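Input chain follows. Return structure tokens only.
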Amino acid sequence: MNDPIKPPHYHPAHPGSDTHCHHAQLAQMGFERMLGYHWGNIIKYVWRWERKNGLEDLKKAKQHIEMMIELMEKGDGYERRDEADCGESNQHREPSDR
């Protein structure tokens, strides 16, 4: 049975590979755009959950929140870049201020 939250078409494309679709997306889009991608999907799934897929959409939003948290924890130099640019930490700023 397919998992609608983590469908097999997002899993590694080649046997023995640990590269997932989101790894390829990050490599192509970069850190900032990937954050925006997750943020946009969170809004989409929370917006429509009552009218479309119910609990499944909430689980998809949760998955994007978890992936966004993972991305922020790994960093990609995010805080260092902001500190170098404006001399302050970015950890307490709202996403729209970034």
